[in-house]
Structure formats: structure tokens, C-alpha cells
Design brief:
Layout: H1 6-10, H2 18-32, H3 41-57, H4 60-69, H5 76-90, H6 99-102, H7 108-114, E1 134-141, H8 142-146, E2 149-155, E3 158-164, E4 173-176, E5 192-199, E6 205-207, E7 210-218, H9 219-224, E8 226-232, E9 235-241, E10 250-253, E11 270-277, H10 284-295
Helix pairs in contact: 2-3
């Protein structure tokens, strides 16, 4: 994977304080959030990199390793073990450790980095390296994200069948362990990170687990009240409209919103705003009735 300078990515100096890192991250996360850039793939990629940079630089231990080893910071422990090994095996007057005695496995990569060869090289086994992490994106509609369902992915020539839980968020990333690149010399496989892009072409607006929509209401029902059937993402629902309902009035339907992620049977709420429609193309008789009503 290409090296990404986390400091440059967040627009901060290497001397930045934790507060400055947090501030820079929040500013950029808002700018490139998938919800604000629904059709911009570059923004989504940037959003993922920003999250990765923040995860590393906001962690004191990870940041220290990143500052010291750069793009190889994730292999810092192996670097340090190799350095210790080199010191032990080349020290004068001290005990010289062979590969078998030290119990450590080191590859030619480390030897070329630090120079020299290890004693007992003929008996040496190569180091085990973790495989590369893979990234994938799945696009869903709002109605697809509403229900738990299965999806098949083609990753590195292999088909992987996953279950997508209901309530997944737009821009959310989940990890599928050990489904990334193959490990080297018997090392563990990398992980697969899947980011979800949810397109909304419905009449509902989603905010967290709550849904919002507008419903047209004719003047007569608004004045007199009555029954009204509306569509939801989970079927039709019948409402009781109160007499003298005002334009812009809101009602809440508890537990009729979006399913809560990994919380079986739990839902947010559905908020409905009434838009009262003024009748048009009235007959003269109907107009007269309105005039009499206004005089009364």
C-alpha cells in the first residue's frame, strides 16, 4: 500500500498537540463525510484516510511508533527485536546467540535493512509477516439497509458471503477478520474492511435511527379529522387525524423508524409533518359554501 503522511493529510505539524489533532480531524471529517458528499468517491476515500490518520496520531503509543518508523510503524516490534538480536550476536566478549538459541525468526528484509548476516543463517527460518488489509465498498439503498440480508463479494478472486445487519449507517466500516491478503511465510492473513455507501431515493430522511417524512392532508380532513393511511419502510400504517389539525403539525410514531444496528427488534421513531393542501378548481357552489363559512 502507498505511504500516506498522516500529518500532511490532517494539515498539521509533527509537533501538533492532541487537541490540535482532534480539531483538525473533526474539521476534515465534516468536510469529507459521505453524507455530505453522496456521489463523490474521492471524498469517501479521503474520509477513510482521515479516520485512519486520526486513529494512529490520537493514540500516544501508535503515534510514537509512526514518528520513528514511518510507513513501517506497524512492524516496529519486529524491527526492535531484530536490533536487539543484532546487538547480541555482534557484541564483543559477550554471549553469541544463534538463531535457534534466540528463538526468533527474521527475514532477509531485516538483514538488508540493518546490514550483515545472522549466525546460524543456514538453520534460520524466515520471519512470518501479516498479510495486507483489503478495502471494499458496498452500495445499498435505504430500503436494503432497513433489513438484515446477505451479500456476496468478490475479493482478490475469491467469493465471500457476508451478512449485512439491519441498521447499518452510511459511511460505516466493518472488519471481516482474516479475509485480506495472504500472510507471508505462514504469517496471519490480513483483514477485509468494508465501507457502506447508502443512497436514499425514498420519501424518508434518516437521522440516526429516526426517520422523517411529509404527508399531504386535504383541507376537509384537516378541519374535520379522520383516518389516513400512509406508507412506511415496513408496510402501511393507519393514522387518526385530529380535527382542526394545523399545517406543519408533527406527529411521532414510536418504533416505526429505522432498525437499531445489531439490536434485534429495536427501532427508532418515525416523525410525520402534515402539509395541508388547499382545494383547487372549486365550483361556484363550493365557493359559496366557503363564503358562508367565513361569514359564520
Amino acid at each position: 500500500m502507498d505511504f500516506v503522511d498522516y500529518y500532511k493529510l490532517l494539515g498539521i505539524d509533527k509537533t501538533a498537540t492532541p487537541k490540535e489533532i482532534k480539531s483538525a480531524y473533526r474539521k476534515l471529517a465534516r468536510k469529507f463525510h459521505p453524507d455530505l458528499n453522496p456521489n463523490d468517491k474521492e471524498a469517501k476515500r479521503k474520509f477513510q484516510q482521515i479516520n485512519e490518520a486520526n486513529e494512529v496520531l490520537s493514540d500516544t503509543d501508535k503515534r510514537k511508533k509512526y514518528d520513528h518508523y514511518g510507513k513501517d510503524w506497524q512492524h516496529s516490534e519486529q524491527f526492535e527485536k531484530q536490533q536487539e538480536y543484532q546487538q547480541q550476536s555482534s557484541g564483543s566478549g559477550g554471549t553469541r546467540y544463534t538463531q535457534q538459541q534466540s528463538g526468533e525468526d527474521f527475514s532477509d528484509f531485516f538483514e538488508s535493512l540493518f546490514g550483515g548476516t545472522s549466525p546460524g543463517q543456514g538453520r534460520r527460518r524466515q520471519a512470518k509477516f501479516r498479510g495486507e488489509d483489503f478495502n471494499a465498498e458496498i452500495q445499498l439503498s435505504l430500503t436494503e439497509a432497513f433489513t438484515t440480508h446477505k451479500r456476496t463479494l468478490n475479493v482478490d478472486g475469491k467469493k465471500i458471503r457476508i451478512t449485512i445487519p439491519a441498521g447499518i449507517e452510511n459511511g460505516q466500516t466493518i472488519k471481516i477478520a482474516s479475509h485480506g491478503g495472504k500472510g507471508i511465510n505462514g504469517g496471519p492473513d490480513g483483514d477485509l474492511y468494508i465501507t457502506f455507501s447508502i443512497a436514499n431515493q425514498s420519501d424518508f430522511k434518516r437521522l440516526g435511527n429516526d426517520l422523517f417524512t411529509s404527508v399531504d392532508l386535504d383541507l376537509y380532513k384537516a378541519v374535520l379529522g379522520g383516518d389516513l393511511t400512509i406508507n412506511t419502510l415496513n408496510g402501511k400504517v393507519k393514522l387518526k387525524v385530529k380535527p382542526e389539525t394545523q399545517n406543519g403539525s408533527k406527529v411521532k410514531l414510536k418504533d416505526k423508524g429505522f432498525p437499531i444496528y445489531k439490536s434485534e427488534g429495536q427501532f427508532g421513531d418515525l416523525y410525520i409533518t402534515y402539509n395541508i393542501k388547499i382545494p383547487t378548481n372549486l365550483t361556484e357552489e363550493q365557493r359559496e359554501l366557503f363564503r358562508k363559512l367565513s361569514e359564520a
